[in-house]
Fold this protein.
Amino acid sequence: MLRPDINELLTQTGPGTPMGNLFRRYWQPVLHTEELPEDGCPPVRVKILSERLVAVRTPEGKYGLMDEFCAHRGISLFFGRIEEGGIRCPYHGWKYNQDGQAIDVPSELNNSEFCKNVKLRSYPLVKVGDILWTYMGEPDKQPPLPTWEFATVPSKQTFTSKRYQENNWLQALEGGIDSSHVTWLHGGGPTGKGLEADPLFKGAKGNEYNKNDLKPFFEVVENEGGLLIGARRNAEEGHYYWRVTPWVLPNFTMVPPRGDHPVHGHFWVPIDDENCWAWSFDYHPTRELTEAEVQAMKDGAGVHSKNIPGTYRPVANKENDYLIDREKQKAGILFSGVEGIAIQDSSLQESMGPIVDRTKERLVATDAGIIKARQKLRRAAEALRDNGTEPAGNIPEHQQIRSVAIVLPADQPFVEGIGEAFKARPGVPQTSV
């Protein structure tokens, strides 16, 4: 059970809130590069951390992210005209550069002097990998650019997607660090095919360990940028199968790998307090993704979703009950009756409501990672609010991290057994079972 005031602190991310201020200390993914595909392309609406913004790419190739509304009469600049040097409001012709600075107000005789005092709220928009990222905090506190391995490997080794999810960011994050549900929801319980039916998971030895041991033991250890959450299952005699999920503050998680498949992960980015973007990535640290793997990701396999064309809303969504198949559920083919790992997750997370009432929950031992993450988020938000303490997770050393799947002797602690395997090192294979 969580006190209502703590639940509010953790879930509210708008301007001026403790958690919102914490989020604004990190680079966050905003747009896929395909959304601003070329110089001079149309602007794109963006809502993040409850702020309504518009993203532009000028004819000169400069990216910008600014307040959606013109300073004159509040017209949405989504309808603006992209011109050399910026965007012009269609109502009265006020023009802004990519940084939100007014550069032309046609009606004013002292145009340049008037413009000096008109500037929209704006944030940097920077391309790293196939994502456009923004930093919304105090400029003098801006951290280094993101160095996550999935965003810095060669482009043919990585794939990124996103989906719109109709619930608060925290219940999505908590699904990302909850390894105990995998056996049931994704594994199909003791009878279903589960992970073996997914082309991005099948064939891995770890799938059998997941299926055969329905009662994982959890051990959570502190890590510099967040937590390492170890889920232990029985393997061969005298050995345990460990799946180690890293969580990096505030909203980055990685799924432990399976065999030589690409490794998966997520960013859970608040749109507002009741909706979020689920960013999902797949990458391989030492080889290019195959055409078959990429096609499977585009088709909604693994952690990705098949979206309605021209949108980022999944085809299977709340309005159609996620296309649940009760016959497959009854027959044990799909334990939840819902196809696809991503939609299995989102269907249940959205079913909790926009913001789950955590005062009613009954947590158990397998929720240790969730409990620790909440505690660490709260401490970080309060330390920033009360003392100005800069949070962990926004520097390169904390972002160069990997998830791990490994079989270890029963008497060996997982932290000792994984050694340096949880650190991302270019050209070094991932540790996977």
Summary: The radius of gyration is 23 Å.
